[in-house]
Each structure stands twice: as structure tokens, then as C-alpha cells.
Amino acid sequence: MVVASRRRSLCSASSFQQTLLILLGAVLLAFITALIGLYLAISESDDPSHERAAVQRLRRAHSATLHAMERAGRAVKSAVHSTKPPLSSSERVFQSSSKAQAVDAAQVAPSPSPSKLEALGGGRAGIVIVAHDRTDTLARCLDSLLQQPDLSLFRLAVSLDHAPSFDKMEAVVRTSSSRYQVNVWKKPDDPKQKVPVAKIAAHFRFALSQSFEVAKFEFAIFIENDLVLAPDFLWYFRITAPLLEHDPSIWCVSSWNDNGFSEIASDERKLFRTDYFPGLGWMIRNDTWSMLAPLWSSFPSTGWDHWIRHGVPQLRYRDCVAPEVPRSKHVDTKGTNVKAGSGIYKLLEKMAFSKLPNGELHDVSYLLRDRYEPYMQKVLQDAQMAPNLESLRDFVGQSDSNLAQPVANPKEIKGLRPLPPTPGHIFCGA
Ligand SMILES: *[C@@H]1O[C@H](CO)[C@@H](O)[C@H](O)[C@H]1NC(C)=O
């Protein structure tokens, strides 16, 4: 769980030790062991040789964080317990001053009533499977998509970028889908694109621009072809789509939770906001693509998803919505990033996968900014303060209350989540 806001005001709160850039990240009971940034490793290693380095980096970051948290924990604990906690002032804690610069207060209309947030109707959204050359994973992904109820409310496409595989991939699409029309989009080859990160980024640009500029989808869901989908996958996106329309501080919905390990993620009805882009089955609205399109690099030096997380100022203070229990599952064992038996594979095996029947998730209006912030404030106020990460583990299953775990200053947490350290800002969450 993540508290997704940065607060300049906390830094200057006199009761806090100003020398430390401390924050209160509310780590809900459930999400403790998982400050590992799993997806970081998956997404940033674009060729297999990077995978080991990624896992090692995570390990290093993890242990650095343990030390940092211990120190920050002591400092925050004494600050919180020795004075009237600044948490009691809602203006202060949730004024989100820097966030307001990006999402102007005037833009944040009062929350619409839950009745306005009804599940998205037909004809407004498309689903795009992004595939390369693997017929087996594409067949499995399509199968799991074609079993979804309400499929007829969406337009369907498979986007391909590997010309030598077009025929065999198209054959899979044709045999899988007799009942539904599935369009096949073929990205023209670009010989100038040589490295995998650039090719993948170019393919996503193609799929996004086909979706929003050519097919004119208002909402589009992108699914990597090595995913299979939970029973209410489409419903999940239908019920959350209005959030993208009504709350400009939310720019994406993802079906994935990096911290959704089966040991700790259990509430299939619970969604949360995060300023991290989880990816792996995600949806945006056309207005977000209009903003991203001119910024999309033709020759990126890093993965497109990494760029989206850290390189787009316009997204910096906006959030994604994600489920506690993932709505997608990674099944490929031979892909570029995930090999059977590898460290990442073992982590992925531990992820929870929602079994919630279709249509049971309702009223997600608590995720709207003007309701979510007071909610998170209360979570923080009511939380027990844990002195360090190890002690958090002891609480699992023993306490009903949430635990707040102070997370270290941006510099120390850098390895865990490489946000650029910004003087005077506090980064909450991980
Ligand atoms: C997004 O889609 C809606 C509905 O079709 C349309 O009215 C609007 O102009 C579109 N916005 C952009 C930026 O394309």
C-alpha cells in the first residue's frame, strides 16, 4: 500500500526533525515484505543478461532500505510521540502542495456521486493484446480474454511488430476467435530500431496511436501477451473507467499489484491508488495519450514503462489505480525477462490471482481524490507506528490495525525506487 503524495509541509513541520527528509508512508499490514519493487526488475531488464543484475540491485536496495528505515523509524517515532502529531491537521497532511501544482485545484471537481460512476457501457473502449512472435502465449492470452463476459462491449485488436511472424500469429488469432471480430494491427518494420528497449517502445507507441488516433477508442486496455486474466478482468476495467473520466489526478488503471503476494494480499474487493505505474494489463483514456504522444521518444535509452514512471513531468503527481489482488497473471516462462527457475520467476509464482466472480466489484468512488485523501489520512492516524521493517513482519496476522512504516529519505530509497531526489520534498510510499 502506498501513500501517494508528496508534502512539502511535513518537511517544515516544526515537530519533525528537519534534517531528515522523513515521511510517513502508510504501509498497510498487507504490503510489508514486498518493498522489493518486483516489477522494476521485470520491466527494466530488457534482455536476459540484465536480469541477474536487476535482482542483485533489488537485494542491495532492500538491505539499504532496512538500515535507512531503522534510522527514520526512530526519528519519526520520537517526533510523532513527543508532540501533537502533525497528522492531526488535515490541511497540513493532505494539502499535497506540490501535487496541486500539476493538477490544479480548480481542475479537481467535487466528486461525482457513485451513481455517476457506473460501469462503462458498450462501444467506448478497446482491448489491445500486444504480441511479438510467440504463438503459444498469444493463444493462451486470447483464450483467457475470449472467456470474459461482456466482451461484446469492447472492440478487440492484436498488435504485432515482427513481420516474419505475422502469418503464424494471425493464424492463431483467426482460429481463436470465431465469435468475435479481432482486428490484427501490423507495425511496419523500422530497420533503424535495433535495441530491444527501443523496439518495444516503438511497438507500444504504434499500439497506442492505432488505438486512440486510428480506431478512436476513448479508453484502451493494453495486455501483454504473456498474461492470463482473472474472471472479472474486464469488469474491473469497466467499473474503474469512470475514475479516469472524473478525476484528473488519476491517469491509469492497472490490473497488477507488485506487492500482491498471496501471503499478504487477500481482499479482492480492495483497490488502492499509487503513484507508481504497475503496468501488466492497464488502461488509459484518450486525453492521456494526447498528452503522451508528442513526448514519446523514438530512440529511448530506457524501457518505455520506466520512462512513464520517472520521465514524464505531467504524470508526476498523478496516480494509477491498482487492485490489492492482481487481475492478471504472468504465465510465460521463456520470455525475455522471465525464465523458468529464475529469481523473478520464483517471485511471480508467489503472486495472488483474483478469483472474484464477474460483476461483484462495486462502488469504487472511494478512490476519487477528495474521498481518498481523508481516508488515507485516517489510515495514517490510526496506524500503529512500526520501528523498522523486521518488526513489521512480527505484526503480520497479530494486529487488526494498520502499520505505518516510515520510509527513508529519497536518496536512501533511490535504489528501491529510483525517483530523482528533490530537495525539500518528501516521498511517501514505495
Ligand atoms: C476522447 O473521446 C471522447 C469521446 O469519444 C471525445 O469526445 C474526446 O474529444 C476525445 N478526446 C481526445 C483528446 O481525443
Topology overview:
Blueprint: H1 8-12, E1 23-27, H2 38-44, H3 49-82, H4 90-93, H5 97-102, E2 125-131, H6 135-146, E3 154-160, H7 166-176, E4 182-186, H8 196-214, E5 219-224, E6 227-229, H9 233-246, E7 250-254, E8 271-274, E9 282-285, H10 286-292, H11 304-310, E10 319-323, E11 328-330, H12 343-349, H13 369-382, E12 384-385, H14 389-395, E13 403-407, H15 410-413
Parallel strand pairs: 2-3, 2-5, 3-4, 7-10, 12-13
Antiparallel strand pairs: 1-13, 5-9, 6-11, 7-9, 8-10
Helix pairs in contact: 2-3, 6-7
The structure holds 2-acetamido-2-deoxy-beta-D-glucopyranose.
What keywords describe this structure?
about 35% helix; binds 2-acetamido-2-deoxy-beta-D-glucopyranose; single chain; 2 domains; Nucleotide-diphossugar_trans; Glyco_trans_13; Spore Coat Polysaccharide Biosynthesis Protein SpsA, Chain A; 3-stranded mixed beta sheet; Glycosyltransferase_13; disordered C terminus; about 425 residues; 8-stranded mixed beta sheet; disordered N terminus; golgi apparatus; alpha/beta
Structural account:
This protein is of the alpha/beta class. The chain folds into two domains: 148 residues, no CATH class; 254 residues, Spore Coat Polysaccharide Biosynthesis Protein SpsA, Chain A. It is 37% helix and 14% strand. It is built from 15 helices and 13 strands. The strands form three sheets. Strands 4-3-2-5-9-7-10-8 form an eight-stranded mixed sheet, sandwiched between helices. A three-stranded mixed sheet has the order 1-13-12, with helices on both faces. A two-stranded antiparallel ribbon has the order 6-11. β2, α6 and β3 form a beta-alpha-beta unit. α2 packs antiparallel against α3 and α6 runs parallel beside α7. The N terminus and C terminus are likely disordered. The chain binds 2-acetamido-2-deoxy-beta-D-glucopyranose (NAG).
